[in-house]
Amino acid sequence: MAAGLDPHFTSLPLDALADAALSRAKVLGATHADVRIARIHHGEHRLRDEALESSSDATDLGIGVRVIHDGSWGFAAGITLTADAAAVLADQAVAAARISRPLTSRRVELAPEPVHVGEWVSPFRIDPFDVDDAERIERLVQLSRSATGPGVDHVTASLDMIDEHKFYADLAGSRTVQRRVRVLPQLEVMATSDGYHSMRTTNPPAGRGWEYLLGEGWDLDAEVAQLPTWLAEQVAAPSIEPGRYDLVIEPTNLWLTIHESVAHATELDRALGYEAAYAGTSFARLETLGSLQYGSEVMTVRGDRVAEHGLASCGWDDEGVEAQTFDIVRDGIHVGYQLNRQMAYEQGLGRSNGCAFADSSGHIPLQRMPNVSLQPAQSEITVSDLVGKVERGLYVTGDKSWSIDMQRYNFQFTGQRFYAIENGEIAGQVADVAYQATTTDFWGSMEAVGGPSTYKLMGALDCGKGQPGQSAPVSHGAPAALFRSVNVLNTQAEGDHA
Amino acid sequence: MITEWIEAGLAAATSDECIVVVRESTEANLRWAINMLTTNGQMHHRSATVIAIRRTDGVGHAGVLSGPVAGEDDLLHLVSQACAAAGEAPASDDSAPLPEPVVDADYTEGAVGTTIDVFAEFAQGLGRALTASREVGTEMFGYAEHHVSTVWLATSAGARRRTVMSSGKVELNAKHADRIGSAWVGQATTDFADVDADALAAEVTQRLAWCENRIELPAGRYETILPPSAVADLMILTYWTASGRDAEQGRTVFAGAQPGTTRIGETLSPLPMTLSSGPGALPAPGFAIVEGSLPGMTSVYDNGAEAEELDWLRDGVLAQLPYTRAAAMDSGQAFAFPSDNLTLDAGSRVTLEEMIRSTTRGLLLTCLWYIREVDIASLLVTGLTRDGVYLIENGEIKGMVNNFRFNESPVDLLRRATEASLTEGTLCREWNDYFTFTKMPALRVPDFNMSTVSKAY
After folding, report:
1. B-chain residues within 8 Å CB-CB of A79?
2. β-strands A456-465, B17-33 pairing
3. Distance CA A294, CA B57 (A)
4. Whole-angstrom distance, CA of residue A340 vs CA of residue A131
5. B450 in the same domain as B334
6. Which of A410, B63, B184, B219 is spaced 20 to 30 Å from B107 by Cα?
7. Could you tell me if B286 and B386 lie in one domain?
8. Is residue B49 pLDDT above 70, yes or no?
9. CA nearest to A435, candidates A277, A172, A243, A148
10. Which pairing describes strands A446-449 and A470-478: parallel, antiparallel, or unpaired?
11. Alpha-carbon distance B72 to B282, whole Å?
């Protein structure tokens, strides 16, 4: 059962504001203009040892007007939701475009897109903001108690809840209203009496409502109950011997490697250089599209904005482009980029595949990633099957530390738990592990992917990109997968100096 | 007008105590890539945060609501919601009495703003730089931003405070046509009056020239000069993890050897380094503004308390750690508010150029990127070098070296640094979205751990 749009949002004078801004932009000579009115409602609770550390409830509501005038972009944003103020924003956006014109050497044009009119609401059952603060906090207290056990010195619990409403209108005639709800509960336990150790839940943020905390989509209670045991195992775990290991990586860890080394690397704005001074560029250059051997033949990665409960799923993107699914890596070959309308036109790539997103009305839409997911094997291959192929290796679960360079070559990741694999069996935890690789070497070493039963939709609430900085939610699905001979570091040894 | 809305809000509050923070912000930005302007914008925003506090036996229960404020009704609605939230909120972990009230003389003054016109002179210089870059076959990328916020803060205890925060930055990145050679310069500013686009372009062009001779080096431990920007990024990360309460709980690199203790009083560096922050040499509000508690570091209950110039490290010795007023009372420490600026000074008069000249063989970095914690207990972090690693031999720059991934603890680097330069204003690279104002020295580290080679440029 899906909830609907919030009447408090739809009762705003959305059409009147759009009409005022678009008509003013047209009078001023804009060849394209779009209006976005967004309301982002973010609530959070933070608990430490069952006590409330912080709690907040913040709403952002405003209007942004973007124009193409004389071949240049202009943008202005404000918070006053009157027709007069909307028209003034159009004036300001055109003025900004005029300032830009002398410094714009290539005229901006957009890939065409059919006109869309409609509404879209993400699938959720219980609006988390309809749940009383007291009930939400009590649930976190309850989970904190479950996470307490021998050897646990501290427990932190947190909950983030986002309710996003967006209205979009453009000069071509598109008008859409959308609502997306997402939540992220997290629990972490810490042991401090024998050095510092921690263990966190691995559940992802989900495009779901309060029902997620009640067990729909993830058995949070079961995972939380295991945390003290896993923490105790980690405290007692031997330190890893650095070297080359085969890795069987769970989707709870692999999603972040996909995010950093595939999803960001195949953003066309990065490949072209638009992010060169900030987020960086990409080794996956446009000239090698269709021929770059990104990974092994079992690697197929798909972008989509339609996955159920996906954090990047929507009806239309922030340029009015309909949600789609497309291949990024097929059978190991790089075959597709993420596009927005400007870059799709600029590179002659046809229609945009709907990857524009702005995190508020106060920011311009950037080319942002859709849900980017590694496809599972069609046959049923279990984690045990993958582990069974390994004589000496590591089984990796849960994400923790991550870092990758500005062309998305060299990365280093840690995890929540690393288990030794010995002769095809999972043995106990080992500690102080990081795995490090170059992207194409790593994906080239992927010998097998798990089947559908190993597939999980993971993700992040706050992927950062752009200047001014913007934060985007995104999901990544992945099966478990087997990688051969990956460089493993001992993090204690890395930090040792005489 | 706004202060009248605030008075109406405080009067309407049904909670025992109430804090209202109104922030009015304007921002303008320019972004360019591949020698042309790509995006720009001008934004206006006004929001309020209301902290309604219910007291039971003196302990606070807080309702914290934030939202846009176009008029008085919006603020009154927030007050009503916050009071309702306080009514059902559990006791706050960071509960403290409201600070002693202070009334600023300029409290009732209006907002100060900015527009895209702030870039008028800078844009002309940028245009010259982009044209010149095009003519010589190189590429320029970058970003300029100016942001002005006016904040009014009022409490039911009588505080009436106002501050204007003006901050800006410019980053200029130049690349060879093959995008292998790459150089970066950045500058923080309050008003762009001190930004010389021509000078920045000349500096980045000179650094790009150093990249014409390309040298491959393997991973390993190298004598390395970290320039002020790189030092700033590492010190900011250290600062963000310096909560006194978390250290007492054994959760940070500043945890003491015994349970419940910290490393305050321990010598962290043999160099006479002083790390400080506050509303002194660099811009920062003179009082605490906390629109959402950052557990262990800042508390909404401290809104309006005096923010002072504080030494975190003095002559190489850890002097104090950030404490909220509640945590300070629990620990017998002083309230220590972490202002959003940071200065590291080792008292040196040596310039970076002199450090280069006195280097027999070593690396000079430009900046660091994608810095993330690997091990909280030691504050081991990993990250990448970016936009210029230069080989120094016999006191001269010999050329550009490939990039590296490093694994290092900033706290351990303080211990191992053998030389510092004079302290100068610098813009950090990794964290400059959040942290603009720093003054740092360059540091010489004899054995910096370049863990693996990065193929990225």
Report:
1. 44-46, 68-70
2. unpaired
3. 63
4. 37
5. yes
6. B63
7. yes
8. yes
9. A243
10. unpaired
11. 34
Q: How far apart are CA A467 and CA A191, in angstroms?
A: 39
In this complex, the residue of A52, A81, A401 whose CB is nearest that of residue B93 is A52
Answer yes or no: do A77 and B130 touch at CB < 8 A: no
ipTM of the complex: 0.94
Rounded-to-integer distance, Cα B273 and Cα B283, Å: 21
**Which CATH superfamily does the domain covering A7-236 fall into?**
PmbA/TldD superfamily (3.30.2290.10)
Q: What DSSP designation does A261 have?
A: I
| pLDDT band at residue B281 under the 50/70/90 scheme | confident
Query: What pLDDT, on the 0 to 100 scale, is given for residue A498?
Result: 60
Neighbouring residues of A139: CB distance < 8 A, sequence distance ≥ 6: A213
Which range marks the domain in which residue B260 is found? 213-457
Which of A169, A170, A176 lies closest to A30, judged by CA?
A: A170
Average pLDDT over residues B256-276: 97
Assess whether the previous peptide bond of A468 is cis (omega < 30° from 0): yes
Give the one of B172, B292, B452 whose C-beta lies nearest to A54's C-beta.
Answer: B292
| B183 in any annotated domain | no
Q: What is the pLDDT of residues A294-334, one digit of tens each?
A: 999 999 999 999 999 999 999 999 999 999 999 999 999 99
User: Residue A192: which of B37, B126, B251 has the nearest Cβ?
Assistant: B251
Q: What is d(CA A62, CA B47) in angstroms, rounded to the nearest whole number?
A: 11
The whole-angstrom separation of Cα B392 and Cα B400 is: 9
Enumerate the domain spans of chain A: 7-236, 243-495
| Location of structure tokens 């160099």 | B271
Same domain? B138 vs B284: no
Q: What residues of chain A lie within 8 A of the CB of B451, using their CB? A: 412, 436, 489, 494
Q: What are phi and psi of B63, to 5 degrees?
A: -110, 120
- State the Cα torsion A108-A110-A111-A112 to the nearest 10°: -140
Euclidean distance between CA atoms B30 and A73, whole angstroms: 11
Cα dihedral across residues A146, A147, A150, A156: positive or negative? negative
Q: Which of B167, B187, B203 is the last residue of a domain?
A: B167
Region of A432 on the Ramachandran plot (φ > 0 left; ψ -120 to 50 alpha; else beta)? left
Q: How far apart are CA A453 and CA A383, in angstroms?
A: 9
Q: Does residue B335 belong to any structural domain of this protein?
A: yes
Query: A394 with A245: CB under 8 angstroms?
Result: yes
**Which of B58, B366, B59, B415 minimizes the C-alpha distance to B210?**
B366
Q: Which pTM was predicted?
A: 0.96
Q: How many domains does chain B have?
A: 2
| Among the listed residues B112, B199, B152, the one whose alpha carbon sits nearest the alpha carbon of residue B4 | B152
Positive/negative CA dihedral, A421, A426, A429, A433? positive
